[in-house]
Write a sequence for this structure.
């Protein structure tokens, strides 16, 4: 009772003060976008290393050219110390995280995998996952991981284990695609906010990178917002397509350990596809593993669609489809013309924040609106990418990188509370070797 009164008081106080976004828990962002040019730090035979961002908030941009092996080798060489720092701390962290998830969600992993984790540890589960996915994975991914291992001075087996972790975790996350009548210039904007849980011991926060691939063996030039030493794509943009994902908690079908790891499949969408239909064909025609929501932005149609992606089911949602596919549609998730969105909560979400911000800015949505969204909804703790298809730009924000090893009681600052950094992909896509 007492708590309800306090909440009522806070809500009415916000109304009296005319707070614009009273349905959101967060406030407006504090910083303007950092838009100075990137600085070249180093070059190697198939790559270049840049840094961009204010001094205590930096992201490396790494240009990679050549065959899969050469691009892997270039990343491993240029980011050797960063890759090693992440790998040295990765297994301790992921062990704690996976065990917490097992405690929290009864049916979070197939029982035999939980058994393996309890008896032999997380590395054994990662090895099993690698075996189960091997025959569905194109060899170029293995060649690139071998190059990365050789460049960074790591064992190939370790690199492979690290690349299996997305198959074992669940992340929250939000996504928005806005286009045509919804945006200020009619262009397509896509938001991807990754909510991973901000453990101060998560080494991924130390070295966020944007890798820009210039493959010589076919496909588009494309970029991935990721971490030093991780070649999968949880977030990425190619100029043709933008991708993002979110764990689909309410999926009630079966999962499979056998199939194409989803973060490699999403990367192939960036490298090879030019439309939502091509991407959907790729999704339909591959053996899928986990259940996630995938966001697909496409430059050729200037639209965005969200996909329920799972081992058994694929379902597609656009701005006219009730979401999630339940009747009645939750009041907190009205259809909004030319906007497709999913907030960070388990779906169906009853939180009105995201729809309220989008509706309030409808017709005027721009980069700043989507930056405001992350701060108001407090979404995107580990990283955030906003893709501007009109100008080929990516706006990136990352969690705080300082304090390693983290002192007791240290809480990293989430990406949504930090300064966004503009990454000029128009420049990086077109820079020759
Ligand atoms: C540049 O990269 C090379 C590896 O290609 C490395 O040996 C060297 O230390 C790097 N230089 C700087 C200034 O980081
Ligand atoms: C994206 O679409 C715009 C407008 O149709 C076009 O000018 C641009 O070349 C397209 N970009 C790519 C990478 O195809
Ligand atoms: C599973 O979820 C779907 C909606 O996604 C629903 O139609 C179906 O009834 C559910 N099945 C079970 C067994 O709960
Ligand atoms: C960066 O450091 C300065 C002081 O050195 C501090 O005022 C500022 O808040 C920091 N910015 C971020 C984003 O951490």
């Amino acid at each position: 009772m007492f708590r309800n009164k306090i909440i009522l008081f806070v809500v009415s106080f916000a109304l009296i003060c005319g707070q614009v976004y009273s349905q959101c828990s967060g406030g407006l962002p504090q910083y303007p976008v950092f838009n100075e040019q990137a600085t070249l730090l180093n070059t190697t035979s198939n790559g270049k290393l840049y840094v961009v961002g204010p001094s205590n908030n930096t992201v490396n941009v790494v240009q990679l050219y050549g065959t899969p092996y050469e691009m892997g080798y270039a990343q491993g060489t240029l980011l050797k110390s960063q890759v090693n720092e992440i790998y040295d701390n990765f297994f301790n962290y992921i062990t704690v995280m996976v065990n917490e998830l097992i405690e929290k969600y009864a049916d979070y992993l197939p029982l035999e995998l939980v058994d393996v984790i309890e008896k032999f540890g997380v590395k054994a589960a990662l090895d099993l996952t690698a075996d189960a996915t091997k025959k569905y994975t194109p060899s170029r991914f293995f060649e690139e991981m071998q190059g990365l291992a050789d460049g960074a001075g790591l064992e190939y087996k370790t690199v492979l284990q690290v690349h299996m972790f997305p198959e074992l975790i669940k992340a929250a996350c939000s996504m928005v695609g806005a286009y045509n009548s919804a945006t200020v210039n009619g262009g397509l904007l896509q938001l991807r906010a990754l909510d991973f849980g901000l453990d101060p011991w998560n080494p991924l926060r130390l070295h966020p990178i944007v890798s820009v691939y210039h493959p010589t063996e076919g496909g588009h030039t494309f970029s991935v917002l990721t971490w030093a030493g991780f070649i999968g794509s949880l977030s990425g943009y190619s100029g043709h397509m933008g991708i993002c994902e979110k764990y689909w908690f309410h999926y009630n079908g079966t999962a499979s350990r056998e199939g194409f790891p989803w973060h490699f499949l999403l990367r192939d969408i960036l490298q090879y596809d030019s439309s939502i239909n091509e991407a959907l064909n790729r999704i339909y025609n591959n053996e899928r593993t986990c259940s996630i929501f995938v966001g697909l932005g496409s430059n050729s149609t200037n639209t965005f669609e969200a996909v329920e992606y799972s081992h058994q089911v694929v379902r597609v949602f656009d701005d006219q489809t009730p979401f999630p596919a339940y009747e009645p549609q939750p009041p907190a998730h009205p259809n909004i013309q030319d906007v497709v969105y999913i907030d960070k909560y388990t779906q169906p979400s009853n939180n009105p924040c995201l729809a309220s911000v989008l509706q309030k800015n409808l017709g005027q949505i721009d980069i700043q609106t989507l930056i405001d969204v992350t701060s108001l909804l407090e979404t995107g703790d580990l990283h955030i990418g906003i893709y501007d298809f009109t100008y080929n730009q990516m706006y990136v924000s990352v969690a705080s990188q300082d304090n390693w090893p983290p002192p007791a009681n240290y809480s990293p600052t989430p990406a949504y509370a930090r300064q966004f950094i503009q990454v000029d992909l128009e420049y990086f896509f077109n820079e020759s070797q």
Notes: The chain has two domains: 66-166, 170-430. Residues 80-104 form the longest helix (25 residues). Residues 56-57, 418-419 surround 2-acetamido-2-deoxy-beta-D-glucopyranose (ligand 4) (CB under 6 Å). The first strand starts at residue 39 and ends at 44.
